[in-house]
Amino acid sequence: MTESPETSEARRAALVATLRENGWVRTDEVARAVLAVPREIFLPEGVSLDDAYAVDRAVITRRDENGVALSSVSAAYIQAAMLDQACLKPGDRVLEIGSGGLNAAYVAELVGSGGTVVSVDIDAEVTGRAQRLLGEAGYGDRVRLLTADAGQGLAGEDPFDAVIVTVGMWDLAPGLRGMLAPDATLVVPLIMNGVTRTIAFRHSGGPLMSTSVEVAGFVGLQGAEAHADEVFTLLSPAGHSMRVRFDSGVPVDMSVLDDALAGEPVTAGSGVTVASGESFERLSLWLAWFLPGFCRVEGDDEVMAGPGGRWFPFGVVRDAGVAYLTLDPTDGRHEFVARAYGRDAATAAATLAEQVRAWDRDGRGNADVTFGYWPEGTDRAALPADAAVLDKSHGVVTISWPGRGAA
């Protein structure tokens, strides 16, 4: 990059102002950390300052041979929000899982000279790049890089006051939980039935209980604790495709959908509308937790797009039907419409539309959602009475959604 340091400093100041204005930076400490670290040093050659300091732009730094992202520098608003969630203070001992360099530099600023920062990644190329760039930015002696599978724990390391995970995790393995000191904070993008939320958990000796929740997406964890979705591809007679993706709970017989795209789509309006620009990010979370048969759906516009041209990857498989959501224009607003294919398309569409109405009635206006993580062996009688439960390999995740009532 050829821009002057003064330009970089000005961009940092403008970025912090935007982050504060939108509520992604809530503390002076995080603001000072973002001001101190030049983001552009940690981005690939050729990335402009416009991209480096865009508030909502992630930059991929490594892909595999198939083009799948393995490592990235997260968008500035995500990094700032997670740092606020972690509540770091001078002298803290902090572990970062997923090494890019930039976030570790921010952490080093927050914990100061008396703190400890350890950054770990399973990919030696990623840690090598991070080590080089941290050195160039002046943080080479303030961050220790390790190449290891952090999902299995880190032998010989003392517990940490905070663990910040910058990769999507499907479960919280015992090795990870074992790295938390008493009263430590774990900030982790947790994948729940295909939908990710970045949750700050407090470790108090029993279950992990959430203290804050943010919306964010990350590349997935590699290593022994990686979790792969099951994906089924449906083809239309014209050769267009739809891919149906399950995090868990795959129907016993997906072959009933083999010829689903041969027929015309069936639709069911929900009657639920949103204004242009209105956020409805909680809808995907609601569907992931409370819609039996929930799946993620993607495909070619020729089979996916509704009248308004917009479709969303949230759907359901019900018997021999698969449905997903479109957003169709109506009376100056936009209505959620379930669009479905297959012999049981009408059933699938009606099921999805009804769950959208349930969200609108019981969940749309309730912001104080609480998560818990209960290790394997927990007596289920100890779980909150109003919570829904999602089984994982090493425990269960619960969600308590005010207004919904008992699960």
TrEMBL record:
**Sorted alphabetically, which SUPFAM superfamilies does this protein's record hold?**
S-adenosyl-L-methionine-dependent methyltransferases (SSF53335)
**Highest taxon, organism lineage:** Bacteria
**Gene Ontology BP terms:** methylation
- Report the GO molecular function annotations: methyltransferase activity
Mind telling me which InterPro entries this protein's record contains?
A: Methyltran_FxLD, PCMT, SAM-dependent_MTases_sf
Q: Where in the cell is it found?
A: Cytoplasm
Keywords of the record, alphabetical order, are: Cytoplasm, Methyltransferase, S-adenosyl-L-methionine, Transferase
Q: Is S-adenosyl-L-methionine among the key words of this record? A: yes
Q: EC number(s) on record? A: 2.1.1.77
The primary site where this protein sits is cytoplasm
What's the family?
Answer: Belongs to the methyltransferase superfamily. L-isoaspartyl/D-aspartyl protein methyltransferase family.
Q: Which PANTHER family match?
A: PROTEIN-L-ISOASPARTATE O-METHYLTRANSFERASE, PROTEIN-L-ISOASPARTATE(D-ASPARTATE) O-METHYLTRANSFERASE
Q: What is the protein's name according to its record?
A: Protein-L-isoaspartate O-methyltransferase
Q: Which organism is it from?
A: Actinoplanes subglobosus
Gene, per the UniProt record: fxlM
